[in-house]
Amino acid sequence: MLKKVLIAVGVAAVVAAGGSLIHPFGPTAVSGTNEAIFAGAQIDPETLGVVQRACQNCHSQNTEWPWYSHVAPVSWLLARDVQQARLHMNLSQWQNYSTDERLRLLSAIGSAVRNREMPPRRYLLVHPEARLSDGERQQIYRWTRNERRHIGINPRVGLVLRAPKLSL
Amino acid sequence: MQHNWTNLKLRTTLTILTGVAGATIAMAASAKDPGRGRDAFERRCTGCHALDKIRVGPPLRGVYGRNAGKDAQFMYSDAVKAAAVTWDEATLDRWLTDTESVIPDNDMAFRLNDPADRANIIAYLRQLSGK
Predict the structure, then answer these.
(1) Rounded-to-integer distance, Cα A150 and Cα A48, Å
(2) What are phi and psi of B67, to 5 degrees?
(3) How far is B21 from chain A (nearest CA, A)?
(4) What is the domain class of B32-129 according to CATH?
(5) Domain boundaries, chain B
(6) Which domain holds residue A50?
(7) pTM surpassing 0.90?
């Protein structure tokens, strides 16, 4: 019996190790890039700190990859989630979005955070540090509205005429 | 003389054909097809909306015929909450064309530029409301 268990554990370990070498969603797991987010936006340090704590792990290049993110099949699930999050919105590429895209993303950020759609509940289960108080949600919401007004008044603020880079 | 008469007939025929073709295209473009509206809704709206649950925006089943800002679970902008707007064909068409023209200072920065998509999506929402 013990021998069968050991064999099963060994097989699982070999499969996990082998699977960890496969990256179906691309080479995502690069930690510690620490790139600027919301480049070109007028954001106060306090609100920026809240966004960095709650949002940038999935929605920027600044993802912190824990040890289990390198073990298949968890690595595949996390890579897919981060890839999709960056496709929706990559805060490290903020300056590359058009004015219309930034206005649309700001309204989506504000509404999603205010209505508790973001951060996702299942993410908060393993990342309790990303929880937002009601005050912090209101703070992000207010900032998105102010930034939309700022862009609306100055539609060419931070505008760079090239397509957003959607790589991982 | 014969030559001019033939030219006149040709030009008249071409004018009629062009008019018929234009009218056909215009009718197709303005058709209110709930089936196409469902497809357009999936393509253009579901990034932020679902029919029965809150996502980035409020759920949209039953929105046609309803007053703006009246989903009890969704936190609307102050402007939408205070607006006296009922969602019908005209208001929804204006809203999807330019939200600010209907309710200034709202939280939906989105435009649907294709009139056919707008008409079809509105027809789909109307059908869902049973109106």
Answers:
(1) 17
(2) -75, 150
(3) 35
(4) mainly alpha
(5) 1-30, 32-129
(6) 2-30+41-153
(7) no
Pseudo-torsion of CA B26, B125, B112, A41, nearest 10°?
180
Q: Among residues 93-122 of chain A, which lie with CB inside 8 Å of chain B?
A: 100, 103-104, 106-108, 110-112, 114-115, 117
| pLDDT tens figures, A57-70 | 999 999 999 888 88
ipTM here: 0.74
Question: Is B110 in Cβ contact with A111 (below 8 Å)?
Answer: no
Strand, helix or coil at A6?
helix
CA angle at B120 for the pair B117 and B124, rounded to the nearest 5° = 130
pLDDT band at A124 (very low <50, low <70, confident <90, very high): very high
Q: How many domains does chain A have?
A: 1
pLDDT tens digits along B40-88: 999 999 999 999 999 999 999 999 999 999 999 999 999 999 999 999 9
User: Which residues in A11-25 are b (16+ Cβ under 10 Å) and which e?
Assistant: eeeeeeeebbeeeeb
On whether residue A159 sits in a domain, the answer given is no
The amino acid at residue B67 is: N
